[in-house]
Amino acid sequence: MRIDLHTHSTASDGTDTPAELVRKAGDAGLDVVALTDHDTTRGHAEAVKALPEGLTLVTGAELSCRLNGTGLHLLAYLFDADDPALLAERELVRDDRVPRARAMVGKLQELGVDIEWEHVARIAGDGSLGRPHIAEALVELGVVPTVSDAFTADWLANGGRAYVDKHELDPFEAIRLVKAAGGVTVFAHPLAVKRGEVVPVEAIARLAEAGLDGIEADHMDHEPATRARLKGLAGELGLLATGSSDYHGSRKTCSLGEYTTDPEVYGEIIRRATGAFPVPGTGGVPA
């Protein structure tokens, strides 16, 4: 089985619609794909409707969190999307996205960048607006060569010149909320130092004690030595170790299934989840 447990669609900051994403996942030979848009489940219904035969969809979301001033992301799988407490927190995060993005555009303008809010809004469309949309605008304006180059201290990285804080969940509370909603939590790209500051390993241990289920070890932003270190850490802490592409369509260079999760680990995620079940494809809607 080929299992990719971290992808994004136009419901947040990917470039493929949910329907396009699951069709591409099927074409890429995946058996299981998780749709984990940032702080939203809005793309799930479209993905389910288009799900091709032979592909199973894991519903999820990537939750924006912050611990002692450092941002981190939690992948939440198979939770009850209508759970009121978790839904209320996701809505708080989403509601802060537009004013935050406007503030970042303002900072860029102060830095001499000829960027307009309308340009960023056009790129985001109906998605959950975030830094990748601003980064794409910077690429289109010729300020940086690639989206990744916008995520530096000069521009949009955590603490960068144009960075603005946003409402984010306390990760311990996020774990509690996801578990209460029947879901499973995995710390996304925990040691991706190229993205900026990361939480110390001691914090991962504390999150494990609080109920964290796993850590994403195999990821494009982890060097081979880091992947090995994280797998060792997972063994020490009794955590599941997953692998995922973090696919964003054309907004990133990674491809679907570039990194995958072991079927036994996937089986354990399913076993632990009580809020929702994986959705098997039955043929989908013709393109």
Explain what the structure shows.
The chain has 287 residues and is of the alpha/beta class. It has helices at residues 18-27, 44-50, 84-95, 97-110, 117-124, 131-140, 147-150, 171-180, 201-209, 224-237, 263-272; strands at 3-7, 32-35, 56-67, 70-77, 184-187, 214-218, 240-243, 279-280. α1 (18-27) packs across α2 (44-50) and α5 packs across α6. The radius of gyration is 18 Å and the shape is globular. The relative contact order is 0.19.
Brief characterization of the structure:
The chain has eleven helices and eight strands. With 287 residues, it is of the alpha/beta class.
**Amino- and carboxy-terminal Cα gap:** 25 Å
State mean pLDDT (0 to 100 scale): 94
Q: Beta-strand percentage?
A: 15-25%
Number of strands: 8
Number of helices: 11
Query: How would a crystallographer describe the biggest sheet?
Result: 8 strands, mixed
Query: What order do the SSEs take from the amino end to the carboxyl end, as H and E?
Result: EHEHEEHHHHHHEHEHEHE
- C-alpha Rg (nearest Å): 18 Å
| Fraction of helical residues | 25-40%
Give the topology, please.
Elements: E1 3-7, H1 18-27, E2 32-35, H2 44-50, E3 56-67, E4 70-77, H3 84-95, H4 97-110, H5 117-124, H6 131-140, H7 147-150, H8 171-180, E5 184-187, H9 201-209, E6 214-218, H10 224-237, E7 240-243, H11 263-272, E8 279-280
Could you name the key traits of this structure?
about 290 residues, alpha/beta, 8-stranded mixed β-sheet, 8 strands, about 40% helix
